[in-house]
Design brief:
alpha+beta, four-stranded antiparallel beta sheet, 13 strands
Length: 203
């Protein structure tokens, strides 16, 4: 999940960035490695293209994630406790010497994860235009909403609240996923060999 860090971004760059990601994610395993490789491609082609991004890889027992100046999401366990998924990392496309950390968390079926682009936190509250929407606000709203509404209505309720209470001068993307059982490996129908679930095709 990513967004160009410009007031008037060139959206013609989006398919190109998506192509870089698709080609990179197929031959690199580590999330931080993928972001570093993407940064290298962006720097070689564009002199200045700041990009906030995050990447998650889900296998049979854990979620690995890495952030480029953007939260990886809010993780909520089925028992009710939740935490922010975040690692240190620079925006992509700023400089050659890129740095990003990688984190991991174990998961179980029934857990949920709320994803949103970083521009969500660039909006201000309608009642106080000088006050930005904070990470703590999103965390609290997610917790309160999912307890009252359940998982099915949580996303719609969150979006409705933001439309009513926040001056949406910066558009953003928000998604909610509930985790279920997933295979740890896939089997190639041609060579019959196994390969990691995160790959889109047999290497």
């Amino acid at each position: 999940l990513g967004e160009i860090q410009e007031k008037y971004p060139n959206y013609r760059m989006v398919p190109w960035i998506q192509g870089i990601f698709d080609s990179t994610v197929d031959y690199l395993e580590g999330c931080a490695q993928i972001l570093k490789e993407m940064n290298s491609h962006i720097r070689q082609t564009s002199k200045y293209l700041p990009l906030n991004a995050m990447i998650l890889r889900i296998n049979a027992t854990e979620i690995r994630y890495s952030c480029a100046s953007s939260p990886a999401g809010i993780y909520r366990r089925s028992q009710g406790n939740q935490e922010l998924l975040f690692t240190k990392g620079m925006p992509l496309g700023l400089q050659e010497n890129y740095f990003s950390e990688e984190g991991s968390i174990s998961w179980q079926a029934g857990d949920s994860i709320l994803l949103y682009t970083n521009s969500c936190l660039s909006n201000t509250l309608q009642e106080n235009p000088k006050k930005l929407l904070r990470q703590e606000d999103i965390n609290r709203l997610f917790s309160e909403t999912i307890q009252k509404q359940g998982q099915r209505k949580t996303l719609d309720t969150l979006r409705q609240f933001l439309e009513e209470k926040v001056s949406l001068t910066h558009p953003f993307v928000m998604s909610l996923f509930t985790l279920g059982s997933t295979p740890s490996i896939l089997v190639c129908p041609k060579c019959k060999d196994t390969y990691p679930q995160g790959y889109r095709f047999c290497p």
